[in-house]
Amino acid sequence: PKSFFFTRHGESMFNVQGKIGGDANLSPQGHTFATKLPELLAANLGPETRLTVWTSTLKRTMQTAAYLAWPQLQWKQLDELDSGFCDQLTYEEIEEKFPADFSERDQDKFNYRYHGGESYRDLVQRLEPVIMELERHHEPNHAILIVGHQAVLRAIYAYFLNYSLEELPYVKIPLHAVVKLTPKAYGCMEERYTVDV
Ligand code: G3H
Fold it and tell me: E strands within 17-148?
C-alpha cells in the first residue's frame, strides 16, 4: 500500500462532557481543528497530488472533513465502536450502573462486548474491508485521509504497526493530530503533525 493519513474527528461536544458514543456535533475547538486541517494537509502532502477523504457516517467526522476540497467517501464500517446500552453515558455512569461490566471490560478490553453493542474483536472484523482497500491502494500520487474515531483508528494503527490484540485497545490516538503512515517492506514509517486549536 501507499502512504495514508489519518486523524480523529475534532473534539466533539460529547468529548467535552466525557460521554461515549452518540452522534454529537463538534465543539468550538473541534471546529477550529476542522478549519485548520486543509492548510495542514496542503503543507504536508508531499509527492501526493490527489487526496481522497474517508469519513464515517457520524456527524463529527463529516464536520471535521467539511472544509476539505477533495472527494469524500462515507464508510459505515468506519463508525465508532458501538457501545450498546452504554451509548451516551460517561465512564463514571457506566461504572455506577454496570459495575460488573465495567470491571469485566478492564480485565479483557479486547474481547469485552458491550450489551447490544460491539467488542474490539467485532470492530477488527468489521474493519476488514477498509484495511483490504488500504492494502490494495497503490495508485501513485494519490493519498487517502481517514477522518475517524479513537477505537477504529486504534485498530487500523495496530494492524499496520503490528501491535498485539492485547495492546490494541490501549493505543493512544490523540485528538487534533494527523498521522501519516508509509508502509515499507518491513514496518511502517510514521510522521505526526499536531494542530494548535
Ligand atoms: O467508545 C469509544 C472510545 O473512543 C473508545 O474508548 O475503548 O478506551 O473506552 P475506550
Answer: 50-55, 72-74, 142-148
